[in-house]
Structure formats: C-alpha cells, structure tokens
Design goal:
9% of the residues are buried. The protein has one domain. By secondary structure, it is α+β, with helices and mostly antiparallel strands. The chain is globular. The protein contains five helices and six strands; from the N terminus they run αβαββαββαβα. It comes from Cochlearius cochlearius. Its main location: endoplasmic reticulum. It is a multi-pass membrane protein.
Length: 165
Amino acid sequence: MQTSQHVLFERSELKDRHLVRKKIREHIADKAKLPILIFPEGTCINNTSVMMFKKGSFEVGGTIHPVAIKYDPRFGDAFWNSTKYSIMTYICNVMTSWAIVCNVWYLPPMVKEEEEDAVHFANRVKAVIAAQGGMSVLPWDGGLKRKKVKESFKEEQQKKYCQIV
C-alpha cells in the first residue's frame, strides 16, 4: 500500500478525519492524479440493499463517478456473513466456488448541486446506484452488523410507527 496513494485512517479519531478530508481535497485538486476509489458504505452487506453512505466522501467537492456492483450468487456467493461463518469457512467457500460473478455498472458522473448538503448528495448518489442494481435503499449504516441499535434510532422508528397506527 505504500507504493500507491492509499489514504488510511482511524474512523473514530477526529484528527484523522480532518487529515483525510484535507488529503482528498488536495488529491482531487491535482488534475494529473487519478480518481480516488471510495467505498462510502464502509462495509459490505448481503447484495440486496445499499446502506447509508458515510458523508465524508461527499463533503470534499469534486465529481463523483458512481459504480453499482452486484454479485451474482448462482455459482458462488462472495458475501461473508460473519455472524454465521468463521473467516476460514468463508475463505474455503469462496476458494471452492465454481466462479464469483459480479455485475458492474459505470453510471454517469454526478456533482453536488448548489443547494445540496453532503448528506443529500450522498443519498442521491446512493439512490441511483441502488436503482441500477435493483437493490433497496436502507437509511442506516453498516455499524448495525456489529453494534446494538442506538436508543435514539429505536425511538425514532417507534414514533414513526405510532404515527402510522
């Protein structure tokens, strides 16, 4: 990774976030440099949905070139359910599958609109990717795979349910 231009950071460290934002801005300002590849979900899920994007990728400006990626599980499933399978079982499944087939769609470039904030821009890009891949849009992030649901999120969903009833 040291031979290429990776930007590594610790998400929980506020100083790292600011440094990454600065490095990305500098990178996109230099037209001689190649585009940056970012996975704004921060994690992978089961190929049926697109989770909340981290807004940092959409705060720095520049043009976003969205790419929709969807695995075809007919020959082998690339998704790792870490709560169900160990890493060794997953590796064995992937290495012994007949093929890992992936559909990739390169979508038209997108730019943040003047009245749009980073969250709305991220949601607009996410919706385009989900529509192309035939996936649903989820309003939460991948942290729910590994952490308990925040009480505030539960309360918000309960309020929405009460309004329906």
